[in-house]
Write a structure and sequence with these properties.
Length: 161
Amino acid sequence: MPSIAVCPGSFDPITYGHLDIITRGAKVFDEMHVVVLNNSSKKPLFSVEERIELIREVTRDIPNVVVDSFQGLLVDYAKSVNAKAIIRGLRAVSDFEYEMQITSMNRVLDDEIETFFIMTNNQYSFLSSSIVKEVAKYGGDISELVPKRVEESLKTKYQRD
């Protein structure tokens, strides 16, 4: 039976930090589902469909990545694709408390699904989608933070050349 993991996030937009976690996770598991979750507490810049398309484009060279979306409980999605693992990226110690709460709740909901934390590469430890959007909004250089296709999409959203 193949090992299947789920890597959830809002990915609004996907950054090199996200890609670092996805790429490294895809080396460990036979199949990696990158799942765009609708976070009701956030107002996304990109629609779910746009985010899925961007993720598919920037992960097309990783053959075992499947891109999908889901509303509801992550453990329900994981069960629906027979995943036994959830991959979560950590940038800094400050991420750990929040991630631990989510992991603990997921364990209560289904104790057969394990969560694995991957520390992001140090060069991306400061990086978040929110920071990328803020810099892009004011025309700053984001070429080292996101893939070219994402950079172009942000420029289009903010009407900058």
